[in-house]
Amino acid sequence: MGIKPTYIKAIGIELLSSYGKRFTNDFDENKLIVAEVTTIDSKRVRNRVAGYVTRKINTGRHS
């Protein structure tokens, strides 16, 4: 059973709307921020969310 991409996107969009100013274009920094502001226990899910947020920051498609 895998992780649904819509779940990752929903969390990422919520984090960007709430904590958008804290995120940078560095994956490792974003990984720490995701761990700090969420209660995600799974390292894999945390990394996928951080990767999604980093991609959105780098492409400039976040609000």
Summed up, what is this model?
This protein is an all-alpha fold and 63 residues long. Helix content is 68%, strand content 0%.
The fourth-level CATH homologous superfamily is: Ribosomal protein S17
| Structural class designation | mainly alpha
CATH class: Mainly Alpha
What is the CATH architecture annotation?
Answer: Orthogonal Bundle
Could you tell me the number of beta strands?
0
Can you write the helix and strand succession as a string?
HHH
In quaternary terms, these chains amount to single chain
Q: Show unreliable segments.
A: none
Explain what this protein looks like in three dimensions.
The protein is mainly alpha-helical and 63 residues long. It has one domain (5-59): Diphtheria Toxin Repressor, domain 2, CATH 1.10.60. The chain is built from 3 helices and no strands. The longest helix has 17 residues, at 43-59.
Key phrases:
63 residues, globular, mainly alpha, 3 helices
Helices and strands, with pairings:
Blueprint lengths: L4 H15 L7 H11 L5 H17 L4
Helix pairs in contact: 1-3, 2-3
